[in-house]
Input
Amino acid sequence: MNSTKNKTVLKDAATVILIRPSKSGDWKIFLARRHQKQSFMAGAYVFPGGQLEETDNDPQLEYYIKTADVFDPCRLLQDSSLPSEKALGFFIAAIRETFEEAGILLGGKTTGNFVSFHDEKVLKRFNDYRRELNSSQITLAEIARKEEILFFPDNLIPYSHWITPDFEQKRFNTRFFLAKLPPNQTPVADAAELTESLWVTPQEALKMHSEQKIILMPPTLKTIEELSAFRNIDELFSAAKTKIIYPILPQLTGNSLKLPHDPEYSIDAYKRPVNLSEPSRILAENGVWKTAFYE
Output
């Protein structure tokens, strides 16, 4: 399909893969189910996320951010074409959406300690902020000022960059991030966009998907398959920090989505060197997406 046929505007978005260790010694990811009435990926299990908003580039936010001395959003996203303000906006959107959709806040005191929701009064206060943020009655900057906290964008590790194919009516230019679950915080899906949620190992998520107990869309499926290769969180985060990130625009051919490293992928602007060692296609079989190697 010619990528110029669909003139739908690409909306910038950010999504966060929340990760925590488990008592059994392995590690788990957080997935939440999109509402059945949503116009995009209804009923699918996804990572928390959403599109960038104007407030994510609020200049006031620079007073409420704590980062390492060398924090370069463009370099971390591996995209020198991005204006620095917009690059930072992806990190801020990731923080905001994770709070709005999962109730997890990547922020805290100037010492670097995360906000703790162990105290019921604090939890209630931040739940109120969450509802107000969802309804655009408050901004992240205002929350930070009220609570005297800072946000921690360098706790987000850029992982990948997916672009919705041009046959979809809603298209997103999405940056995926990794983040460890802060201590004394528990994710709870909002009742509007996300309904049910679960903590599962990547292997469990893939098994549930294959058994049609949950629905995983192509970017989520491919990401979870990649995550399943890592034995522990340290190994995963170490690899993520050196991972090459490039835009992935799947190309539809028949019932197959070709990825940029597939030998037959033909969108020049996104084509990558052929890599036969990893799945390069995502197929729909009996209503279930699955990855496949080039044959």
